[in-house]
Design brief:
By secondary structure, the chain is of the alpha/beta class. The protein has five helices and eight strands. The protein has two domains: 67 residues, 2,3-Dihydroxybiphenyl 1,2-Dioxygenase, domain 1 (Roll); 87 residues, 2,3-Dihydroxybiphenyl 1,2-Dioxygenase, domain 1 (Roll). Strands 1-4-3-2 form a four-stranded mixed β-sheet, covered by helices on one side. Strands 5-8-7-6 form a four-stranded mixed β-sheet.
């Protein structure tokens, strides 16, 4: 196990979430599933307690901690994409699997975890500064999934 990992609290679906992430994003995998060695107050022997996995190379631990805490927009994964096809693929996988769209390239998966599907073209437009960045930013503000062609057109003016 890595010295520092992201711990994500799930009600009871950490394994399903980890397997979805592993199927959806490159450099992602389920590394280990740990089960309860005996019955406990809110579960039974053999229930999944934690899942070690990676998401796009980031080590994570999914904890089935029950319904006490939910995910918040204060934490999100940001996935940088190279083109519209990659942007569409990740967006559609998350939203089309019980997730929901939000604004400006943000969406939530069916477990409530927030994702930023961010084309590198948008990152470059914002880094350009000045009027290019302002126009790209204003275009982005009206989007849910990022439209790279519209960002590039706005950047050009």
């Amino acid at each position: 196990m890595a010295k520092n990992i992201v711990c994500l609290w799930f009600d009871k679906d950490a394994e399903a979430a980890a397997r979805f992430y592993a199927e959806t994003f490159p450099d992602s995998a389920v590394k280990a599933v740990h089960r309860a060695p005996s019955d406990y107050p809110s579960g039974k022997k053999g229930d999944v307690i934690t899942v070690e996995f990676t998401v796009a190379g980031v080590p994570c631990l999914g904890l089935n901690g029950g319904p006490a805490f939910g995910h918040s927009e204060a934490f999100s994964f940001q996935i940088a994409t190279d083109d519209q096809a990659e942007t569409d693929r990740y967006w559609n996988a998350i939203v089309g699997n019980g997730g929901q769209e939000s604004a400006c390239g943000w969406c939530k998966d069916r477990w409530g975890l927030s994702w930023q599907i961010t084309p590198r073209a948008l990152i470059a437009a914002m880094a350009a500064g000045g009027d290019e960045a302002r126009r790209a930013f204003e275009a982005m503000m009206g989007m849910k999934k990022i439209d790279i062609a519209a960002i590039e057109a706005a950047r050009r003016g």
